[in-house]
TrEMBL record:
<feature type="domain" description="BTB">
    <location>
        <begin position="17"/>
        <end position="86"/>
    </location>
</feature>
<dbReference type="InterPro" id="IPR011333">
    <property type="entry name" value="SKP1/BTB/POZ_sf"/>
</dbReference>
<dbReference type="InterPro" id="IPR000210">
    <property type="entry name" value="BTB/POZ_dom"/>
</dbReference>
<protein>
    <recommendedName>
        <fullName>BTB domain-containing protein</fullName>
    </recommendedName>
</protein>
Amino acid sequence: MSSILGTKHSPNFLFDGTVALYVGRDSKRMEIHKKLLASISPELDKHVNNDMKEGIEGIILLPHEEEVVFTLFTKWVYTGDYAYEDDTPFLCVFSDKFNIPTLRHLAKSKFHAEVSPFEPNSTEDAAGLVLAIGYAYDNLPNSDPILKFLAHYASWKLELLRATPGFEELILARPEFLKALLATLKGLSTKPTATTSQMYATEDDWNRMALKALAARRARASQPK
């Protein structure tokens, strides 16, 4: 892949100074060439060139960005590419947030190329998938094809995900994911037949079901809107 340095920028940016970036909750310090960073997108240019304290002092605070994601971004800025990491979905979100179409396209291409042949089989794999789905649905626009892909992926591995901690909470907290997931599921091929014990529940059974339904309704009502 072509280098960013070789195709887009004159080497003059190397002599135009750097800006200091403090990334993540721990404020890890990173430096990047000022003119290069400003040229990536209008949003980043606003961080670099402004009359506020950060623009004047050449300091940019990015407490909500992950250090590993920004490291991948920096590799791409200087080389035009980066090695695939599990954090690529986070890089998709980062590129959307800072309006970097070229990086967005690259990150999504890598995501599909690397995830498609991957088959999660362990509890650890399933837990990572749950986290990835939750993050994607919380941060990517509803029209993003990655969301539909993840719903299909979850449908494929539903048996594994059902026993995964956090999956039930994922469904309850993100109805748009549940809707997409249900759209991929096939119903039973034969009509279900209820047994006598299922048809004739006892009074205690009905009371337990009513209490569960009431508790679920109260829990939904207490959630912030």
